[in-house]
Amino acid sequence: MKSFGKLCAVSIMGVFLFAGSGFAGDTIKIGVAGAHSGDLASYGLPTVKAAELVVKEVNAKGGILGKQIELLIEDDACKPEVATNTATKLVSEGAQVVLGHICSGATKAALGIYKDSGVIVMSPSATNPGLTQSGDYPNFYRTIASDDAQAKLDVEFAINVLKVKRVAVIHDKGDYGKGFAEFAKMYVEEDGRAEVLLFEGVTPGAVDYSAVVQKIKRAKVDAVIFGGYHPEASKIVSQMRKKRLKMAFISDDGVKDDTFIKVAGKYAEGVYASGPKDTSANPLNIKAVKDHKEVYKTDHGAFYINAYSAMLALINAIEKTGSTDYAALTKTLQSEYVETPIGSISFDKRGDAIGAGFSVYQVKDGVYVELK
Fold first, then answer.
1. Residue 21 phi/psi, 5° resolution?
2. Cα(83)–Cα(76) distance, rounded to whole angstroms?
């Protein structure tokens, strides 16, 4: 890597972008899109920090292809209607690849805009199966397994380990939550040893979920499987426990976040949630976590490791390709492996990461613990 220009820091929205000269063509522009404000910022901001740390280090060593990397950071608040504007802005500003988006619904809304512009997008967290399996978005990649994989894992855990027989499947009606829930329902029915007695959608952002809690109580289920994010999950769990409903609560990686534990408090104890496999013993993982702690003085948060891995994968592909050409990058991403904090990964023809997977976690003494 050859030295190019001077490293400078530009403050935008309270975060720092590490870039070289601002003249067109003098930098490689990487967009970073996701929820940087609102209830789901705890999912998006770790991705920003991962991008900052990787780019700071790469730029300090001279950048790639003789150029410094410039980050273009845009907030979509995890809302599809905002994400389209975010994508349009990033494309207009010259983003050559994009790290993001975070939520599946927002990602889906934005992907067509990037596709039309020949921009590759890599998400650390958008798990809706259709994003890769539909074939509609050949420009999309992710460093996390899809919802069908974690739904199957959660159902197998519920039936084989918890021995549940009667299940309620609840979701937040969104692309991510409902998609996960539909797969969970399908896997329960395919297994045949348990039955789904309640399949119900709830309205995101509601203050009171007592109506669905009452339905859960009347169904007399052994477990609730929830598809969605932590704001709704924390309220539902809290209201269930206050009504002395002790059945297991099992959810997805949208709930496997420390914010859920902080909001639900004592009612979070015992909750199960699937999430990316624990790769904390990986040397690159150890380094990524250490660097975050030293710079930001806080824990790294949800999807940070997947975002760090995605950033490394994108930069590695650009460097090995020798350009940001769409077709050339596609070939490199699907043929080359790269060492990341989640392991050595490549991508299949659909854009799913080869080498990524899920584990089941449980809240024990106020922290999520991976169940072996």
1. -60, 145
2. 5
Cis peptide before 101 (omega within 30 of 0): yes
Split the chain (372 residues) into runs of 10 and give each run's mean pLDDT: 31 33 70 96 97 98 98 97 98 98 97 98 96 97 96 98 98 96 98 98 96 98 97 98 98 96 98 96 98 97 97 98 97 98 97 94 98 90
Alpha-carbon distances, residue 19 vs 9, 52, 69, 72, 77 (angstroms): 7, 10, 6, 10, 24
Cα 84 to Cα 77: distance, rounded to the nearest angstrom: 11
> At a CB cut-off of 8 Å and minimum separation 6, what does 100 contact?
31, 32, 33, 34, 44, 47, 76, 107, 121, 122, 123
The CA-CA-CA angle for residues 27, 124, 178, to 5°, reads 135
Assign domain 8-144+280-356 to its CATH superfamily.
Answer: Response regulator (3.40.50.2300)
DSSP 265: G
Residue 77 burial (CB < 10 Å; 0-12/13-18/19+)?
A: buried
Q: CATH number of the domain at 147-252, out of 3.10.129.10, 1.10.287.3510, 3.40.50.2300, 2.102.10.10?
A: 3.40.50.2300
d(CA 26, CA 69): 9
- pTM score: 0.85
